[in-house]
Amino acid sequence: MYKEDRDANLQFIGEDRIDHTPKDEKFKIKIGEAFDVVGERVQTDYKRLGDNLFEVAFEVSLRNHKKEEIRVLVEEPIPGTGRCSRTPTPSKSERPPDPVRGPVGKDKEVKVRYRVRFKY
Fold first, then answer.
1. 24-27-30 Cα angle (round to 5)
2. How confident is the model at residue 64 (pLDDT cuts 50, 70, 90)?
3. Most buried among 2, 5, 47, 109, using CB within 10 Å?
4. How many CB atoms lie under 10 A from the CB of residue 79?
């Protein structure tokens, strides 16, 4: 993967391998780590609602130490069969327009809270 710099030169930014992917299907590549973007995930609640039925709550704090605004996608694999409900919470007088895929301003923090209910 290459990215154009300020002088219009291509700079190598990372690489990954992908398996065979059928036409029109999505895939993910990991090209590296961002040392100036921090994400911390904390479990805030856990309930057993019945036989093989659970509900867990999390809060993710996203801090951007870059010199520009960034867009962040928070993904959570849900075990078994389940669903997720999300609630954005303002931080430093900011509220992202979308609680899962949204901007984090320069030197700002955004918190995302969500609950996951799942069955095994």
1. 155
2. very high
3. 109
4. 11
pTM of the model: 0.65
Quick one: pLDDT band at residue 109, thresholds 50, 70, 90?
A: very high
Confidence of residue 26 (pLDDT cuts 50, 70, 90): confident
CA distance 110 to 94: 7
33 sits in which H/E element: none
The answer to whether the beta carbons of residues 11 and 5 sit under 8 Å apart is yes
DSSP state of 94: B
Q: In 3-state terms, the chain is what percent helix, strand and coil (to 5)?
A: 0, 50, 50
**β-strand partners of 16:** none
Structure tokens at 111: 């918190």
CA dihedral 72, 25, 79, 113 (to 10 degrees): 20
